[in-house]
Amino acid sequence: MTSHTVAAHIPPPGGPEREKLATEHLRAARALRAAGDRAGAEERLVGAIRSGLWRYARLWTELRSMMESPADYAQIRELWLESPRGSHNVIPLVTTVARAASVAGEHDEARALVRKAIVLQAMRGKRLRSRLGRMKHGALAQMRSAKPGEDTESFESRAAVALTALNSSFETLGVRGFLISGTLLGYVRNSGFISWDKDIDMGFFTSEMSAAALVEAFESSTEFNVRRLDFNSDRLRVDHANGMMIDLFPHYEEDDGRLWHDGTATRWWNSPFELKTVNFVGVDQYVPDPPERYLDENYGNWRVPEPQFDARLDAPNAEVTDRAFLETLHYFMLLDGVTKHNSAKIERYTALLRTLGESEWLKRL
Questions:
Q1: Using CA atoms, how far apart are residues 99 and 248, in angstroms rounded to an integer?
Q2: What is the pLDDT at residue 230?
Q3: Angle at which helices 323-339 and 343-355 pack, to 10 degrees?
Q4: DSSP secondary structure code for residue 346 in this structure
Q5: Mean pLDDT, residues 107-127 taken together
Q6: What is d(CA 183, CA 199) in angstroms, rounded to the nearest whole number?
Q7: pLDDT higher than threshold 50 for residue 145
Q8: Higher pLDDT, 156 or 331
């Protein structure tokens, strides 16, 4: 058996050499995984983390993405308990371990970790705002104007590349991928992406191919990494080599005659529909026909922008499938609100967590 043990030498922390080393280990693990050597990929990642790269959340995230059953969380938990204390204040790392725990159904552990991340983020935000408050108004305004944002043109060009490649692969497999959710909303309402979109939402019919067969078809792909996101649904995450993320939802027909697609803790129904081809970011792309009916069922009044819309709570066609997981997701949503200083989101999810019995630590936000 080939050993993928990592060499002991690790560059000193804080420098580009260590960042480069972490990237090399990540690429090597993905290559092993693409070659069908899952055990080797895991060994590479665990060895890299234990050799000193504890704080590199990307390595932990890759390890989490390789979970195939709740039992696989045991290895991540063991690593977390073994990790140096300083790593426990790295918010992306804490969040990654919490997501692994939630996927494994360990909701008490997940919530405890997200609580920690929320408080850490809130404390750091207060310190930052305090420092900014001591700045002169003009300097602060200049800083804000110079703050880098998402390059919309770059995002759309990467999306076009990923969609073109995925559609080509789908055509070979006899599968039609179609825009849904926020991406479909962006096409119909904005003729492009919604400004706060960071990924692509797509669906496919299980009558054309099962989710398991689709994952297997992409197993050796060097351009796409395709995996299940959780164990209670067949929802897939498709990562293109250029960094574009695509959430892929299998649409299946139930005895009620409607089409359903699953999320982590909820599922959504739609009336049966055909597909038509449209031009989206310069790519010929399938969409439900008519797209407006799909959006009516998913959003209600979708013509009025609502940045705070939560598809799990607000969609008229949503059905809860895992109450415990849904409640754990409220913690992650509060963390997102605190991170982005979104007062409306903070207020909403703080109120929801209070209904779950949370109280004292929320006063620290």
A1: 19
A2: 84
A3: 150
A4: H
A5: 92
A6: 8
A7: no
A8: 331
Q: Is the peptide bond before 148 cis (omega within 30 degrees of 0)?
A: no
Q: With residue 225 as reference, give the H or E element that holds it.
A: strand 224-228
Please report, as a single letter, which amino acid is at residue 71: A
Query: How far is 80 from 74, CA to CA, in rounded Å?
Result: 10
- DSSP H or E stretch at residue 226: strand 224-228
Could you count the other beta carbons within 10 Å of the beta carbon of residue 346?
21
Report the alpha-carbon distance of residue 346 to residue 358 in Å, rounded: 14
Q: For residues 313-323, b (16+ Cβ closer than 10 Å) or e, as one string?
A: bebebbeeebe
Tokens 């959780």 sit at which residue?
A: 230
Whole-model pTM over 0.70 = yes
Q: Give Cβ neighbours of residue 200 (< 8 Å, ≥ 6 apart).
A: 159, 162, 163, 179, 183, 244, 245, 246, 247
State whether the Cα torsion 64-76-326-357 is positive or negative. Answer: negative
Judge contact between 99 and 69, C-beta under 8 A.
no
| pLDDT above 90 for 289 | yes
Beta bridge partners of 259: 253, 270
DSSP notation for 187-248: HHHHSS--TT--SEEEEEETTT--HHHHHHHTTT-SSEEEEES-SSS--EEEEETTS-EEEE
Distance between CA atoms of residues 242 and 150, nearest Å = 15
Please give the average per-residue pLDDT across 107-123, as a whole number.
Answer: 96
Dump pLDDT digits (tens) for 301-338.
999 988 889 999 999 999 999 999 999 999 999 999 99
Helices 323-339/91-103 angle, 10° precision: 170
- What DSSP character marks residue 11? P
Q: Which secondary-structure segment (H or E) carries 251?
A: strand 245-253
For residue 308, give the amino acid letter. Answer: Q
CA nearest neighbour of 307 among 356, 283, 340: 340
